Hints:
The protein contains six helices and ten strands, in the order αβαββαβββββαβαβα. Helix 2 packs parallel to helix 4. It has helices at residues 3-41, 66-81, 113-122, 180-201, 216-219, 231-235, and strands at 48-53, 85-90, 102-106, 126-128, 141-143, 146-148, 155-163, 172-177, 207-214, 224-229.
Amino acid sequence: MDDNLREIVLGVLAAGVTTSLGWFGRTYLWHRRLRRTRRFLGLPPHSECLLVVGRKASAGEGTVSRDDAFALLELSALIKDCGAHAQVLSHDTVRQGIGERTEFCIGGPGSNRRAAAHLHSLLPGVRVNTDAEPGPDQASFTVGGERHRMEKGSVEYALLARLTAGEGTHPVFVVCGQRAVANQAAARYLARHHARLARRYGVDGVFCLLLRVVNSQAYGPDVVELVADVTQAATSPQAPPQGTGGGRRRARN
């Protein structure tokens, strides 16, 4: 074998080894990211999860808004990537505890009873105005004593939370927006940023984020800003108003 042929053969072998190492490296990193995503979402291969959706505001039971349906699609794609299966249920038909299966609960307490239960049990520091009458505080969020009002079509807020409780190991994801378009925006935020959230809070972490949807009238659910991490305020019970404490004051003589 002359020198030129030897160099060609060695070059081909080196290229093959480099390509193989690159392929194995990329495959390893892909599987590593997938394992991390599955653990963060509580979705091992072939597992089942719940997609719980509320009814459309000002509509009859069983009616789902278009934006909530889009939110379901955003999450369904994420679930499929993990190799898991989803069961879509109406908010008033779910009868299971927390942690038995991963749950994605979409909607606010005014349209989703399951969301109302999660807010009461797991996010006691959050108050949502569910009054049907129009007004400046309609659908407003109060978190840790700070109020966030909705400006329909201009500024809307959503809460995105990963919560755990009970004896089970699977998380509950609460997607609670002031409007259905905010629900979709929060679901899309989770689908796009789940890897970053897993790095920041850990694959078993608990968090509650306040998101702001900007100019949904023009941009729909595409422009979303992270306002603050409100985990501590949202998971801590609100202090009772002054003068209405649980203990009775002694009468003075």
